[in-house]
Amino acid sequence: MWSYERRLQYPVNIDRCNPMLAQVIMSQFGGPDGELAASMRYLSQRYAMPNRKVAGLLTDIGTEELAHMEMVSAIVHQLTRNLTPEQIVEGGFQNYYVDHTLGIWPQSAGGVPFTATYFQSKGDPITDLVEDMAAEQKARTTYDNILRLVHDHDVCDPIKFLREREIVHFQRFGEALRMIQDELDSKNFYAINPAFPADLCK
Amino acid sequence: MESSREKLFACIQATSFVCDELRLFLDTHPTDRGALDYWDRMSKVRNEAVTEYTQCYGPIESYRVESDCKWAWVEDPWPWEGRC
Fold first, then answer.
1. What does residue A110 show for φ and ψ, rounded to 5 degrees?
2. Residue A114 has what DSSP assignment?
3. Please, what are the averages of pLDDT over each run of 10 residues along chain B (84 residues)?
4. Does domain A19-184 have CATH number 1.10.357.120?
5. Does A181 reach chain B within 8 Å, measured CB to CB?
């Protein structure tokens, strides 16, 4: 189970609203490389992970991603709270506003709703960990793209923190993949799904 | 000038982050002596800071809410509200 702590993993304190930026940053909540997809990916994959250490890593990173989802949501919330109708139109926020007012809803920057098809849980430790490493890199690239558009230090600061976490997670998943590969049987030279050993008996 | 409440909260934030980082490192390096010692030191400091903060300013974890005459968990601003 999970329990909530009354704090963000890293503080978010934004005074100046910016609906245009909010629309871009919300992609890291509900977009293709966002934190919601990341958390659901790792927390779904862990059941088929035969190595207990790697299953633990998926649990702990999946949990941290929930905290990142909360940070991204807090950034979007603080960038859009108390907007006037004029600011909504000037910031190009009217298409989001008409469906969600100033509520937080998982979608990409382009308005595509969150979907489970953003991630896979393949039941193959090697396949899943390679996806996880790619996912961390894609999220890092997205944060790089966001940082080129942000000039407000109060927004940059937590985004930089989130970007750095992608790099650490990539490193840990790389170690996890090595642990899985080190355990492969010599008969499984081509790294066929080690979670489904019946395939190797043919 | 930081208040003692802010200082204590900053201590919880910093030690929690060290623990978050060490937890992932230890998942893939479970016998690393230096990381294990660091974990023991930091989790102790964090635990003491959370206990002191809870007593002085209110709960961060809902399991630690002490029932008084009213449910304190929902009294203070939520973390996503930012500076108020």
1. -85, 0
2. P
3. 89 98 98 98 98 94 84 92 82
4. no
5. no
